[in-house]
Amino acid sequence: MTYLLFAYFLALTLPLFIRSWRAGLNGLRIQAIAMALIIWQHGDHLAVTPLIALADMVLFRAIFAPWYLSKMATERGVSHHFDLIPANLFVWTIAAILIMTAFGFSATLAGEYSRSITHLGVACSAVLLALLILATQRTPLGQAMAALTLENGVALFELHAHHHVEWVAQLGMTLVYLLSVLTMALLVRRLGMVDDAPEHPADTAIL
């Protein structure tokens, strides 16, 4: 499972340094695929709850969400030159500090269990980096990707527990995720890029 967590971590961090919203959406896709493979490795493939979780990861998080957000961004004419976080050394340093803090916290929490340290460290990094993106983003698309990164981080935390919730609850969480994606895509379609009209500061407010 370690190699899946490593793939998740790369999909989480590399888009921060690539000026493309497509890289960010592909990162979300790889994160979801890694979590689907982790669920598959846990076994119980014929149980209802894992099947719903697998459908959530593959159909909605890996396929539908990146495709639909990409479709809305293309229709709105969002520029391909897109930074998830500001491209400067100060913000990159903050991101590195957050990652080190996440793994330090996971080492304290997990004790001697090395697999738990890696799993919790990657999940904590996803949550903290998502909050950093939310704090620095002014565009609806960037905020949507930050929210989905946060969702994936929380889902990765849940996978560490190695237990399944009732299938009704899992189905409800899947539907909430789907509605969240539809709402975010609508915002991207309606608002597009805030920086499209920098000469009107009053129009740049998102909330």
Please describe the topology of this protein.
Layout: H1 2-13, H2 21-41, H3 48-76, H4 89-110, H5 114-136, H6 140-160, H7 167-191
Helix pairs in contact: 1-2, 1-5, 2-3, 2-6, 3-7, 4-5, 5-6, 6-7
What does this structure look like?
With 207 residues, the chain is mainly alpha-helical. The protein has one domain (2-195). It is 74% helix and 0% strand. It is built from 7 helices and no strands. α2 (21-41) packs parallel to α6 (140-160). The model is unreliable at 195-207 (pLDDT under 50).
Descriptive labels:
single chain; 207 residues; mainly alpha; 74% helix
Summarize the structure.
Helix content is 74%, strand content 0%.
Gap from first CA to last CA: 40 Å
Number of helices: 7
Helix content: over 70%
Number of strands: 0
One letter per element, helices H and strands E, the order comes to HHHHHHH
Q: What would you call the structural class?
A: mainly alpha
Radius of gyration, CA atoms, in whole angstroms: 17 Å
What count of domains describes the coordinates? 1
